[in-house]
Amino acid sequence: MTTHSLDFDYGNKTIQEFVLLFKNGQLNLEPGFQRDSVWSDSDRKKLIESLLQNYPVPSVFLYRQHENGKLRYDVIDGKQRLETVLRYQGVGYLRGHRFGVKIKIDPDGDLEEWDWQKIVKKGHEHRLMGYKFQTVEITGELSDIIDLFVRINSTGKRLTGAEKRHARFFRSEFLKQAGKLAERKRSFFLENKILSAGQISRMKHVELICELMASVQAKTLINKKKALDGVIGGQSSTPAAIRKAVQETIRILNLIKKVFPETKTTRFANSADFYSLFMFVWELDHSGCILSDVRRNKQAQKMLVWLSDGVGIVRQQQRKAVGAKADQRLFADYVLTIQGDTDSLASRQRRAEILRKVLGGLFEKKDEQRGFTIEQRRLIWHSDERKRCSNPQCGKLLTWSNFTIDHIKPHALGGKSSLSNAALLCRSCNSKKGKN
Is residue 140 within 8 Å of residue 3, measured between CB atoms? Predict the structure, then answer.
């Protein structure tokens, strides 16, 4: 049968045949467009019970190819089923994932735990190995295969947006780098309650990193639905631009840990709110704000909790059909942005405005002048009669050719490049101070 540019052959294969194909390297459970394993242990046990009782199960879809004269199958649909069978038997790299099932092999017997070793020992392996999966073998263009994969996975455990993008754009360099970073930050997302293990198994961490990288690259907020496909699937991002986006995303995530260490106790652990917090911190950093002042950071954390709790109270009132009070207007405005299309550009822009209103005034900007001018150096030199290093443990006599000027209050903490914030240091002391 032929549809568009795809050819379909209908048939069947026993589990024994699938096992042999897998052992020979001819069965690929994880082609580039496939998603991760999403079945629970309970799902897998139910399938084995069904197979041992010879119940029918859905067909397996296979992408048939020939490579160097050797037949190979990429699994389009049925990965979870085939993987379950191979895990049950402990075949190849899945040997560490064996499990047992509670079943009556003899209809008149008792309910027992049967693992593969016991099945073989009791001589019942044919009941599994002889089971026939209905198959659909497909040949055609890869792009059409991917489209088919997305279509047939619209039932059962449906593909998430992240899984669909992974299928369509698995060759995208942007997506590959985002995937690597997402794996590096897996523990960060889990520890801060931003994503659950289940969400990560459905590639939500990759989707979130893609959003953050795309926003950093665009230098502004993005509309999630409209922007991601274009950024991931487009060819406009150079390798250098992608590397820069990765580095900047890592920097902002690290700054969030420093400025808002208790994010997990607030609503900003939700992925939609976390995106807004990330972009707020990116904006602060991009505009030259000081994010290393411990006192100010503690105050910012308190204000974030205040905003989070206020929003929570208003939401509770709404559930009881109680309107917001006059002094809760800010919280009510925030609630409006998390109802309906929370990832739209308009919602994100409004959340950004609220975060700026609540937190923006807490952070001091760095002096745009990083160093001292030649005129300042002259004035500072001539105003110090001792001409010695100001480090009490040093006191070295300085000359015009070997002195340096140090910020008494560090520039990184808001110290100005002014005469009142300057001191003479020898090069050695200044170098040591910079390393501390």
Answer: no
